[in-house]
Design brief:
This protein has five helices and 19 strands. It has helices at 29-37, 77-89, 165-173, 211-223, 275-278, and strands spanning 2-11, 14-20, 47-53, 61-67, 72-73, 97-102, 105-114, 117-124, 129-131, 146-149, 153-158, 183-189, 195-201, 205-207, 230-235, 238-244, 251-255, 258-267, 279-286.
Amino acid sequence: MTKVSFTKMHGCGNDYIYVNAMLHPIAHPEACAVAWSDRHKGIGSDGLVLIDKSPVPEADFSMRIFNADGSEALMCGNASRCIGKYLYERGLTDKTEIRLLTLSGIKTLRLHIYNNKVESVTVDMGEPVLEDESLFLANRGLTKGVFVSMGNPHYVIFTDDIDQVAETGHVLEHYPAFPHRCNIEFARIELNGSIRTRVWERGSGITMACGTGACATAVAACLTGRAGRESDIVMDGGTLHIEWRESDNHVYMTGPAEFVFDGEAEVFDNWTNSPSDNCRVNSKIVK
């Protein structure tokens, strides 16, 4: 049996389990993500994030992220901000600009420091990719949405009824138009100009926030004339500031990251077929 130290963190309520894979390599991250993410029998999270050294010189560190259902995601904006805070405050780097390798490319994290603590992080999320994938489900009262990829696919629907995320999110995630499934955002323009958004994440269901989803929503709002190039995206767990910069066509996301607690989990060395029999929580240390 191997003991694995972990840290739970969240960005606007989007919570993940973080493991320093440089110290604790995980042989079966998909199974561990399923077992540890369980909110009743495990640690409880939206997924598992592995922080590792970069295999290429162009980046400083690497990230792999596994959703609560065990599927591997290409990118997560909230997780990338948390990684920036983790690396700096745990003494793994003294850089305030970190190059992070993800499955959707290298993302640059700019840390905003106050009293030697990371107060917020700005992530260069790169250029949005737009495709013409429009859907209309008349029996659910949905209007045409906007497809935006921020390294992972998002479908943004502007509607006054954003709470239909619980009823419609799962349907759209698995809709035939999205052969690799899709993240779904329901967004409403508020009187103060902010954009209230609820998120259905591919592989995790309803989450408190989604960084790439906030970026996709801001881009979709700008494209459809509902907002300018800067927006505050208000999600269930908090607010992210998004800028779609005209000078380089990149999307920049700024928001907080927080530690929740550290703990220790166990992984059995003789692996069997049941994830819950191989990955379990031994103890938690609340911070």
